[in-house]
From TrEMBL:
It comes from Irpex rosettiformis. It comes from the Eukaryota. This is WLM-domain-containing protein.
Length: 324
């Protein structure tokens, strides 16, 4: 009887297996549970970048697992899940305490009922990490940071954006996508994690994808209308953060993740006039405007690349069954 020799990787440890090609997926799961203590119901088996979707009658040979293949196992033991729930409970408790302290320290301000109802209506109404992926508490923390980002909340209020659910995309389930807007704001899904699940993508990169997907609340296709609104959102985010940096615009009680120039082009713009050779000698406002123009030029180039990784419209839309 033919055997298949392959390696299973789980949380940094490698296990060598030699099983008959007629081994069923259920039998493989039992073997993996014995090795790793991860129950079958908590197991996600990945190989060649795809998730195994075998039924209990399927064999590992039928699934295309061959000798030399490296299989990745995702999943937590019962003990780890218990610890995770305890950590998440403690995290939620600390968040509640911080919110209560913040509300008590806020000065009493007069506000109109319309402003209050607007802040309640135009926001992310819920967030949800994917519980079957590693470190869901870290994913939740990133989603909460995005949903509470002062600049994002600012543009959502201006444009009356309301999103039912902010959640994440699993790299192995949608390897071609960075973002997806379902039914014009019913849900926005973002790629938070690196391909190897060893960490999270840069915050500013994820937030740029979020601005792109928010634009799909209004425009479905990547046409000129979409590009114009998306460019406007990016500009408003940058302008808002620059005003916060300069102390001219604040949202009471909200932490701020201030954008800082990072590209060579922006660094150049701080000292030189674009297209010239002399240092900038204009006013502070003129230099700030020059930096903003340089930042927008960089974002426009990034946006062209992002369109190919958006599941709402464009090349990736035909590959995603979840898009509207």
């Amino acid at each position: 009887m033919a055997t298949i020799d392959f390696t299973v990787s789980h949380k940094g440890r490698n296990y060598s297996l030699s099983l008959p090609s007629v081994t069923t997926f259920e039998e493989l799961q039992a073997e993996l549970e014995e090795l790793t203590s991860v129950a079958p119901k908590n197991q996600k088996v990945l190989y060649k970048g795809k998730k195994a979707t075998l039924n209990v009658e399927g064999t590992i040979g039928d699934a295309g697992i061959k000798s030399g293949v490296k299989v990745q196992l995702l999943g937590s033991t019962a003990e780890e899940l218990g610890e995770l729930r305890q950590v998440e409970g403690e995290f939620q408790r600390r968040e509640r305490i911080l919110r209560e302290r913040a509300s008590k320290s806020q000065p009493k301000l007069r506000s109109t009922g319309s402003a209050s109802s607007s802040s309640i209506q135009f926001r992310f109404h819920s967030i949800e990490p994917l519980p079957h992926l590693p470190n869901p508490s870290g994913a939740r923390e990133l989603l909460e940071k995005l949903s509470n980002d002062p600049a994002i909340r600012h543009v959502m209020q201006i444009h009356h954006f309301s999103v039912g659910l902010l959640t994440e995309l699993a790299p192995h389930e949608h390897p071609e996508l960075l973002g997806l807007n379902v039914n014009a704001g019913q849900a926005i899904k973002l790629r938070l994690r690196t391909d190897a699940y060893d960490g999270f993508r840069l915050y500013k990169d994820v937030r740029r994808v979020l601005c792109h997907e928010l634009t799909h609340n209004v425009w479905g296709d990547h046409d000129n209308n979409f590009k114009e609104l998306n460019s406007k959102l990016n500009r408003e985010v940058l302008e808002f953060e620059r005003s916060v940096t300069n102390g001219t615009h604040t949202l009471s009680g909200l932490p701020s993740d201030i954008y800082q120039p990072s590209s060579e082009q922006e660094a150049y713009a701080q000292s030189y006039i674009l297209g010239g050779s002399a240092p900038v000698e204009g006013t502070i406002d003129e230099r700030r405007q020059l930096m903003l123009q340089a930042a927008m030029k960089r974002l426009q180039k990034d946006e062209e690349d992002l369109e190919n990784s958006c599941g709402t419209s464009g090349p990736s839309a035909t590959q995603s069954s979840s898009s509207s």
